[in-house]
Amino acid sequence: MNLLPIHVQEISELITGRVLTDAALSRFTSFRIGGPADLLVEPNGVEELAALLRYVHTMRLPNIVLGAGTNVLFRDSGFRGVVIRTAGIGGFSVQQNSSDTARLTAAAGVPLHSVVSRAARQGWKGLEALWGIPGTFGGAIATNAGAGGTSLGDVLSEVTVMNVLGERIVIQKENLRFGYRWMSLPQATTVIEGVLQLPRGDKKAIEADLERASVWRRSSQPLDRPSSGCIFKNPAPDNPAGAIIDRLGLKGTTVGDAQVSEVHANFIINCGKATAADVLALIDLVRERVRAEEGTDLELEICVIKEQPPDV
Questions:
Q1: pLDDT digits (tens, 9 = 90+) for 283-309
Q2: What is the C-alpha to C-alpha distance for residues 212 and 162, in angstroms, rounded to an integer?
Q3: Burial class of residue 149 in the structure, from the number of CB atoms within 10 Å of its CB (0-12 exposed, 13-18 middle, 19+ buried)
Q4: In the chain, where are the structural domains located?
Q5: CA 185/CA 162 separation, integer angstroms
Q6: CATH 3.30.43.10 fits 5-88, yes or no
Q7: What residues pair up with 156 in beta bridges, in sequence order?
């Protein structure tokens, strides 16, 4: 392990949550792939997160913030540094502005599906298309998660991030910049909270929309196998990556235990013992075929994490 024992000891004294050395990252990602992290830490609450961020910055320890690990691929060699997992940053509240609108505040570690379902139960609409997207609310903000023409940025009222000194920065809606699968946030900050502005809707209509979204996901995505969700961004709304890969006959293509899903061609699934090397080789194969036969460069939607991050 690259970290010194004194670092582990001092971090353990700062944090009441889990502190794991040589933690297998395959346990903490939806792909079920990834070698060991030198240290994986789960702070309980925002104050512990602030203390941890200050510490790793002061000590110049390489680090990365991880939500539910749903759109990332760690390499087989793992991560040399501290993985900060935000699952312990919880909290959810609703402030009704009027009979027609409400502000819903959720912390970074709350699962996105929980935010969607809670809003729906209380009759607030606007999130139905996001039903079934895995991951945490913080991760969904950072990547501007979306589906069906709706993205989280469309309904965000404000976002609170934390910098490396543990200071909070509140970004109001008018200052949020976002687009297809990206959210522009201050460099070296961590999302800790987001506020949604949602209108009142008809509960029965909302429930029907949720059911349609659920049926669509179950029928069109390989939910029974580990994956990281969509691998590539769609080049255009009318030319999605999955359709391109499908018409090139690449469904079912395998490298090792990694496979282009037979259900949805923009998913690569782990058939049991896939390695990161398998997935990356399959990604390269698909991109090369698409570039050669379609003249299109597919951009990754997932984030591939380097073993050794840049100096902090």
A1: 999 999 999 999 999 999 999 999 887
A2: 37
A3: exposed
A4: 5-88, 92-206, 222-304
A5: 11
A6: yes
A7: 196
- Is residue 94 within 8 A of residue 102, CB to CB? The reply is yes
Instruction: Tell me the torsion sign for CA atoms 262, 267, 268, 273.
Output: negative
Amino acid identity of 133? I
Instruction: For domain 92-206, say whether CATH 3.30.465.10 is its number.
Output: yes
**Token output for 67:** 């939500």
- Cβ distance 257 to 225 under 8 Å? no
Q: Choose among 210, 190, 177: nearest CA to 136.
A: 190
Pairwise CA distance, residues 197 & 165, whole Å = 29
- Angle, alpha carbons 249-76-63 (nearest 5°): 120
Rounded to two decimals, the pTM is 0.93
pLDDT tens figures, 73-107:
999 999 999 999 999 999 999 998 778 999 999 99
Token pair 């061609």 is at which residue?
A: 265
